[in-house]
Here is the input.
Amino acid sequence: MTLDQISRFRRLSRAVTTQTGALDSSFLGLGRPLGVARVLNAIGQGKQDVAELRAYLQLDSGLMSRLLRTLETEGVIATKASDLDARRRVVCLTALGEEEFSKYEELSNQSALSVLSRYSQTEVLLEAMDLVATVLGRDQIEITVADPEDPRIQSCVQAYYDEISEIFGTRFDPVLGGDPEADAMRAPRGVFLLAMSDGLPIGCCALKRQGGALGEVKRMWVSPAARGLGLSKRLMTEIETHARQLGLTTLQLDTNGKLTAARRLYESSGWREIERYNDNPYAEHFFEKHLDPA
Amino acid sequence: MTLDQISRFRRLSRAVTTQTGALDSSFLGLGRPLGVARVLNAIGQGKQDVAELRAYLQLDSGLMSRLLRTLETEGVIATKASDLDARRRVVCLTALGEEEFSKYEELSNQSALSVLSRYSQTEVLLEAMDLVATVLGRDQIEITVADPEDPRIQSCVQAYYDEISEIFGTRFDPVLGGDPEADAMRAPRGVFLLAMSDGLPIGCCALKRQGGALGEVKRMWVSPAARGLGLSKRLMTEIETHARQLGLTTLQLDTNGKLTAARRLYESSGWREIERYNDNPYAEHFFEKHLDPA
DNA sequence: GTATTTACCTGACTTAAGTCAGCTTTATGA
DNA sequence: TCATAAAGCTGACTTAAGTCAGGTAAATAC
Here is the structure.
């Protein structure tokens, strides 16, 4: 390779600024200055609180106020005082505003499609984009508690099954693998953690109480796009915090010899290998960790 | 996957605009407004002609003039009338300008490094970035004639050898594969084409005269980052043009059964399979194409 | 040689964006 | 209860960016 790493990185910046610079200026096509358009779009994307908007767009309080006034007199947004704190204001789109917002959405979609459509290996490209976006947005990764039946959790779990099936060469059967029923992985019996990076589900991890002070960690999965960012470690740490809150003192988990990265993680974070404790045919290694009560 | 293709694409735009927006505003740290800084950087990157600068930065003639005046009074650039056309002006950095420019370079490198350094699978990330940048900059791909010993050609050829070695599971031996010596692939006996995308070598293709009006196509390679963009077809078309200019009427090439994409390309673009014409142990299929003289 | 075009420059202007001090209203803590 | 802080608004300002109509000098066309 004749280009060094930094040059390759900066090559991406150039490509995207050229491209998204065009995207930004396409926003001018609807007659609003960019600042006003940005505010309208942020509101359309669900930001409601004025303070939240200001932080997100990094705008001065006075400027923000004026931009909101512009949109208000145009009739695309409506503001009212917050119920909880009458000093704060909440903003929402009017019917007209929804309409205007959808025009911007359409523009963005068009420009995305125009790039995607002229490239034949779409999935390869999208996976590369997922990876780049996730690494760049690394600081925005959010871990939250979600319901086991949340579609975002489901998509992670499905990806987990697919991956295991691929590694083992046979269809992974979740029942054989000891799939805990959903109830076991939501409060009060357990918890299911979901990691999101700007709308994309990139990882999950579940905890179920086994009885008494014993818990089991299940469904630990991190998307290929998010590997190498220390996400599994973060998920593990959070799961342990939840375990302590549930009053658990011992955690167990099983894993396979082929998942070497996972095993290294467990070994380096206080888990020790123990005897087989279940009859999961996919598992070859069993680990245990004692938790200090909070 | 809960996100559709367009959302995944737009996720990248957001990530990079946030990131490179930060990059842009980091340029403000040196005290110059962004417009002036952009002009300085474009000059540092080798743009010399005022008209070229204006087209590249998409600036109005008057505004451009004023920005240049600002930089000139600051002492970082010098302008003079062009030797060929005294109406035109050429710009260059002064010693002070070089110094200032290198500060911006340093800033860009720092911000690139700060992202790269906190991610463990650097090569995977860079390959994803190569792909994304190449697809976005698809319209900027340039095919030029290069010397067989040009380091950019060498890096392509090395990648070609590595890939073939991987596919065949053994070390590919270029001598067994009938590597034509460099002289055979430069004028007047042949040609070596190089495809570049914003500084990154992404493909090559060589032509050597076999004697009389017979030529052979060798070293056709396209980087994984550029597959699916129709680059191999473009390379093939250009090689045929060069072949005609060299007075060749028949082209031959050999390929392996494992390179199915290559074979499909040949079959769909006027090549027909022929008998083995050499003793290259890596080759299993042989093709020929007759050219209509120009 | 003269008319036209081209490349760049200058001055006068508009708009967008951002800053800052001070204001009102509401919440909060001693 | 009263001082203080917080959230948002308004007015006055600055700077950056961009537009446009001329203007000059050089090149090119007729």
Remarks:
- Residues 33-36, 59-60, 62-63, 81, 85-88 of chain A lie near DNA strand C (CB under 10 Å from a C1').
- The two ends of chain A are 51 Å apart (CA to CA).
- Chain A touches chain B through 58 residues (CB under 8 Å).
